[in-house]
Design brief:
Blueprint: H1 2-25, H2 33-62, H3 69-99, H4 104-143
Helix pairs in contact: 1-2, 2-3, 3-4
C-alpha cells in the first residue's frame, strides 16, 4: 500500500509540476503540457488499478478463495486497465511517430507498446486458466 500512496503523490504533485516546469522551460512545447499531464496521470491510474486488483487477489489466495467467481472480476479489472493503458500508449506512439524528427523516442515507445501487448496477452491467458480452474473446482466440490 506504500507504493499506492507514492503513486497518488506522484500523480497529484510531481507529474503536473513536472509538465508545468517543462512548459516554462520550452515555450514551443507548452501546448503539450495538459495532454502529457492527462496521459501520464491516466497511466498511473491504470497502474493503481492493477495494484489494488493484485492486492485483492492476494487476499483471495490467503483465504483460499482464488478459484471462485469473485477472483475473475479482479482479473478482469487488471485486463481492462492494461487494455486502456495500451490504447492510450498506441495513440501516443502514433502521434510521436508521425511528428518526431529523431527515431529514439518512437523506438522506445514501440518497445514499450510491445511489452504492454505481451503483458496484456499473458493476462488474457492467465484469466482463461483461472476460469478453467474455477470451473474444475466448482465441479469437484459438486461431486464431493
Amino acid at each position: 500500500m506504500v507504493l499506492f500512496g507514492v503513486l497518488v503523490m506522484f500523480q497529484t504533485f510531481s507529474l503536473p509540476g513536472q509538465f508545468a516546469h517543462m512548459a516554462q522551460e520550452s515555450p514551443q512545447d507548452a501546448y503539450l503540457r495538459w495532454p502529457a499531464t492527462i496521459v501520464t496521470v491516466f497511466w498511473v491510474l491504470c497502474v493503481q488499478v492493477v495494484i489494488v486488483s493484485t492486492w485483492r487477489l492476494l487476499n483471495l489466495v490467503k483465504n483460499d478463495r482464488i478459484f471462485t467467481e469473485a477472483s475473475l472480476k479482479w482479473v478482469d479489472a487488471i485486463v481492462w486497465a492494461i487494455a486502456a493503458g495500451w490504447v492510450v500508449l498506441v495513440g501516443v506512439f502514433l502521434y510521436v511517430g508521425f511528428n518526431a524528427d529523431d527515431p529514439g523516442l518512437p523506438l522506445l515507445l514501440f518497445l514499450l507498446t510491445v511489452g504492454v501487448t505481451v503483458l496484456g496477452l499473458l493476462m488474457v491467458v492467465m484469466r482463461a486458466l483461472l476460469r478453467q480452474a474455477t470451473t474444475l473446482r466448482t465441479d469437484m466440490e459438486a461431486v464431493i
